[in-house]
Automatic annotation (TrEMBL):
InterPro entries: GalU_uridylyltTrfase_bac/arc (IPR005771), NTP_transferase_dom (IPR005835), Nucleotide-diphossugar_trans (IPR029044). Belongs to the UDPGP type 2 family. The keyword Magnesium does not apply. It comes from Cellulomonas fulva. It is an enzyme of class 2 (transferase). The gene is galU. This is UTP--glucose-1-phosphate uridylyltransferase. Residues 5-274 form the Nucleotidyl transferase domain.
Length: 297
């Protein structure tokens, strides 16, 4: 079965970016000249996922508006002959079949994923978190999709981080996966935000998953964990121990490409700078200015 559905949780309150997120969803904050959420949807579409479900919450109507047509604006741009901007406006509308469902209460990532149950049905599906932007030049999601189709179960993305930072992430214990490449591993243990001295590795779980639909039944019986929320990591730990015929087993892909974290204010600023520097239309002038500015600090 070819995987073609993506789920993007986008119901968080975005409190780290207040007051900017008081009325604007954090997913709509611009990264250069596109909202962060559009980069994520584009990544899903590039990987062949043409059915995208956004899990939203209150005050997130602008997310739906962004992926909808804007006839008045389009007519105005067309009348002016501004075909370049018209194409950019229409790009988000024509990206994919985008659907929306509300989470209600923000009760954790696991609870957000559970809201996709009726839309996804009994198919494997991808989950992409909007805080993690993966550079379009680096392959990750397509590798994960292909791995799930080969071995079944669920697949998570892993990233090596400095050991002192592992307590900010879900953490995985792993072993080699026979017959697969070095950066493809079998997950043998999962723990959410462990103390540094108790972490089984420095492999952090980042925001890309390809999940077997068995995750929904597990999530329905997963008790609130760390922070009083239903943690997806806890559900994956249960799936890890289930037999393959029940959708069990978790594998991981260790990502060594470029990842931009937009969930923290400082990292968000770094992401904007890195992406802008690499843009052919902005990069040369921006890099020259940035170099001169940095030299004067």
């Amino acid at each position: 079965m070819t995987i073609h559905k993506a789920v993007i949780p986008a119901a968080g309150l975005g409190t780290r970016f207040l007051p900017a997120t008081k009325s604007t969803p954090k997913e709509m904050l611009p990264v250069v000249d596109k909202p962060a959420i559009q980069y994520v949807v584009e990544e899903a579409v590039t990987a062949g996922l043409d059915d995208v479900l956004l899990i939203t919450g209150r005050s997130k109507r602008t997310l739906a508006d962004h992926f909808d047509a804007v006839p008045e604006l389009e007519a105005a741009l067309e009348a002016k002959g501004d075909t370049e901007r018209l194409a950019k406006v229409r790009e988000s509308t024509e990206l994919a079949n985008v659907h929306f469902v509300r989470q209600g209460q923000p009760r954790g990532l696991g609870h957000a994923v559970l809201q996709a149950k009726h839309h996804v049905g009994q198919e494997p599906f991808a989950v992409l978190l909007g805080d993690d932007l993966i550079d379009e030049r680096d392959e990750l999601l397509t590798t994960m999709l292909a791995l799930q189709e080969r071995v079944g179960g669920s697949v998570i993305a892993l990233l090596e981080v400095p050991p002192e930072q592992i307590s900010s992430y879900g953490c995985a214990a792993v072993e080699a996966l026979e017959g697969e490449q070095e950066d493809t591993v079998r997950v043998t243990g999962l723990v959410e935000k462990p103390p540094v001295e108790e972490a089984p590795s420095n492999l952090a779980i980042i925001g890309r998953y390809v999940l077997h639909p068995a995750v929904f039944e597990v999530l329905e019986s997963t008790a609130p964990g760390r922070g009083g929320e239903i943690q997806l990591t806890d559900a994956l730990a249960t799936l890890m121990d289930l037999p393959p015929e029940q959708g069990g087993g978790v594998t991981g892909v260790v990502f060594r490409g470029r990842r931009y974290d937009t969930g923290d204010r400082l990292d968000y600023l770094k992401a904007v700078v890195k992406i802008a520097v690499d843009r052919p239309d902005l990069g040369p002038d921006f890099k020259a200015w940035l170099t001169d500015y940095a030299a004067r600090l």
